[in-house]
Design goal:
The structure holds 2 protein chains of 2 kinds. By secondary structure, chain A is α+β, with helices and mostly antiparallel strands. Chain A has helices spanning 2-18, 20-55, 70-81, 94-105, 135-145, 158-199, 202-210, 215-255, 270-295, and strands at 59-64, 86-92, 122-128, 151-155. Classes of the chains: A alpha+beta, B alpha/beta.
């Protein structure tokens, strides 16, 4: 079994050396197709990162008519931090709220002259964990917070959140549809290229069968060849995407005002890189498998 | 060696490629299958090496009923056959040596054994000095000799040839026929489909005649034809 595999691997390499053009066509097609997919994935990842960044702004603000005692405040914060939806809690006293308001007014701050700092209520700013940064998460938390009679009012930027959710849903749909379309196109192009390369070698397949080759014996080197070409194509796609990212995307995306809120434009993480190369392997293997079913007949 | 009983084969509903063929070919026989184009010669050979299955009837090769054989067993059957075609069917990207060694590689033979046998087979057909050439660098006659070496290298029980000299000139045809005679002398049963009457006249052997898919004659050099069906 092991010896047969070694023999099949040797024949795969020999086949590729003997048909460099066909081999190059298959590797090139996989590389180009997967590069496009990789660039799309980089764009999608960065847009997702952007929406995740924006979602950090989502928080529930709890207003209190009467400023709490320090001891009670400590207990409330501890209890709220124990809720599964909550990431962090910060207290804003009346004085701090007044100062912030003054800062925000900047040049018009003199409008506040003569007013006491206690015109604004004290509040708790509650940051939500990523999974709960939506209307349902905010409302579930508010339901729990209502149990405390000292909390008089709750706000979570409902309108903004609705718009944000619509945008995020639309983005998700675009990514899914375009990504699916690209994936299908890649599969179609790669499997057809492999089919053509095997079609060019159909006589070889016929001769192998005529001199007593079993289907497994005939197919194994071609399957290995497909997997190897796919892997090579995947690696080339990764390298190509990286070069394109470094030369154009990194600065190009960062220059867009849309992305200015991000700390940095990101490349595909390690898991995605591995997935890309393995996709190449799978495409090569699958493309060969489908085509061989058609061409190898005993 | 080969027993064919009442075999029918049709590719289309209303036209039969073979109709009720029954033939026995003993071990070590040398047989021509002849007839005009469309007589069913190639179809009969295809049935013998399992590329086609008959619609009716039974075919035994070396005691094995190939009409009942699972398709997984067909490659095993072919390993004891040598098959030669009019268009040679050589792997053009492989060298002469690689082409001839291929059937032995499939059988999982050891490398040194392969080298020895391939060299011997190439020597038999007179091409041992061209083992590193590729088929397209050779003449038609030489390519056919490579194909014969590939068939002989497995020491076949049955050597099947479909119009092996169809594309070759008379001088090369003589050389090729000498190779088939040699293989037959070493024990292989030889079946050659041909419509070359001159070849049959110069190398007289048993002749099975087909016409329109029917067996119309079966004669040895010592007897006259016995019309059938």
């Amino acid at each position: 079994m092991f010896g047969s595999l070694i023999y099949a691997a040797r024949r795969s390499v020999r086949n590729m050396r003997q048909s460099p053009f066909l081999c190059g066509a298959a590797v090139g097609t996989v590389a180009v197709s997967l590069s496009i997919l990789a660039l799309f994935a980089i764009l999608a990842l960065n847009v997702q990162e952007l929406t995740r960044h924006w979602s950090e702004e989502i928080q529930v603000t709890v207003y209190m008519d009467v400023p709490p005692q320090e001891e009670a405040l400590g207990e409330w914060i501890e209890k709220i931090e124990g809720y599964p939806e909550v990431e962090k809690v910060s207290y804003v006293s009346r004085g701090e709220a007044f100062d912030r308001f003054r800062e925000r007014l900047s040049e018009d701050a003199d409008l506040l002259e003569g007013l006491e700092p206690d015109i604004l209520p004290a509040s708790l700013g509650i940051g939500l964990k990523e999974n709960f940064r939506n209307r349902a998460g905010a409302e579930t938390l508010i339901e729990k917070l209502r149990e405390n009679p000292s909390f008089s009012d709750f706000r979570y930027g409902q309108e903004w959140l609705e718009r944000f959710e619509t945008f995020a849903d639309m983005l998700q749909m675009i990514v899914t549809v375009l990504g699916g379309f690209l994936l299908f196109a890649t599969l179609f192009i790669v499997s057809n290229t492999i089919k053509l390369t095997l079609y060019a070698r159909r006589e070889e397949l016929e001769v192998m069968a005529l001199v007593g080759g079993t289907p497994l014996f005939i197919k194994t080197p071609f399957l290995l060849e497909g997997a190897l070409q796919g892997t090579l194509g995947g690696l080339m796609a990764l390298a190509g995407a990286f070069v394109f990212f470094e030369l154009f995307l990194l600065e190009g995306l960062a220059a867009l005002p849309f992305f200015s809120g991000l700390y940095g434009i990101i490349f595909l993480p390690g898991s995605h890189q591995l997935l890309l190369v393995l996709s190449g392997t799978t495409l090569g293997l699958f493309g060969s498998f489908i085509s061989l079913r058609k061409f190898v007949r005993i | 060696m080969i027993q064919i009983y009442n075999v029918f084969k049709s590719y289309q509903k209303d036209s039969a490629a073979l109709e009720g063929i029954s033939v026995k070919i003993p071990k070590g026989d040398f047989v021509y299958i002849t007839g005009p184009s469309g007589a069913g010669k190639s179809t009969l050979l295809k049935l013998l090496y399992g590329a086609e299955k008959p619609n009716r009837g039974q075919i035994l090769v070396n005691g094995q009923n190939i009409t009942r054989m699972r398709s997984a067993r067909i490659p095993i059957l072919r390993r004891c056959l040598g098959i030669v075609f009019q268009d040679f069917k050589l792997l053009t990207r492989r060298t002469v040596f690689e082409n001839v060694s291929f059937p032995l590689e499939i059988q999982g033979r050891k490398r040194y054994e392969i080298s020895k046998k391939v060299y011997q087979a190439l020597k038999t057909v007179g091409l041992e000095h061209k083992l590193n050439r590729r088929p397209l660098e050779l003449s038609g006659g030489e390519q056919q000799r490579v194909a014969i070496a590939r068939a002989l290298v497995v020491e076949p029980l049955v050597l099947i040839a479909d119009e092996p000299t169809g594309n070759l000139d008379p001088q090369v045809t003589l050389e090729i026929m000498e190779l088939f005679k040699g293989a037959n002398a070493r024990g292989s049963t030889v079946l050659i489909a041909t419509h070359d009457r001159e070849m049959i006249r110069r190398f007289p052997r048993r002749v099975i005649s087909l016409d329109g898919g029917r067996l119309v004659g079966d004669r040895t050099p010592e007897t006259f034809s016995v019309p059938r069906g």
